[in-house]
Amino acid sequence: MAVTRYRRFLKLCEEWPRDESKKGRDLGTFLRQRVAHAFREGENTQIADPEKCDQMYESLARMNSNFYREKFPRAKDTSFTGVTVEECRLLLSTGSVQQMDEEKKGLWKTLMERFSSKSPEEGPEKGTEK
């Protein structure tokens, strides 16, 4: 039975879309990593809780098929703030998140990085530690 579960999860991973604007942070990538981890031995993996595994698969399959989107259609494709789907996608892209992180750094850290001769990741030089 583990063979069937493994193949079902592999098929789901193939069908699950990847969001290229969120490199390494999208749900499709996370799902693939979790399936690879859960089924380390491939078809020979022993499932500790088969019922929970089946429930998880069914939930993910419903999400992937837009079951709830079709069951509960929305009147408008905006949130309560009025932001559209495309604007949300743009705000959550990797580039926008990195830009917001840069803005959050603060003045002191920005000045220290600009005027320092070495990068902050290098740390203090050997022999100068107290």
Automatic annotation (TrEMBL):
Q: Specify where it is mainly localized.
A: mitochondrion
* Record localization: Mitochondrion matrix, Mitochondrion nucleoid
Keywords for the protein's UniProt record, in alphabetical order: Mitochondrion, Mitochondrion nucleoid, Transit peptide
Which InterPro entries would you find in this protein's record?
UQCC2 (IPR037698)
GO terms under biological process: mitochondrial respiratory chain complex III assembly
This protein's source sits in the domain of life called: Eukaryota
**Pfam families xref list:** UQCC2_CBP6 (PF20180)
A cellular-component GO term for this protein: mitochondrial nucleoid
In residue numbers, the region (Disordered) covers 111-130
Q: What PANTHER family does the record point to?
A: UBIQUINOL-CYTOCHROME-C REDUCTASE COMPLEX ASSEMBLY FACTOR 2
> What is this protein called in UniProt?
Mitochondrial nucleoid factor 1
Q: To which species is this protein native?
A: Conger conger
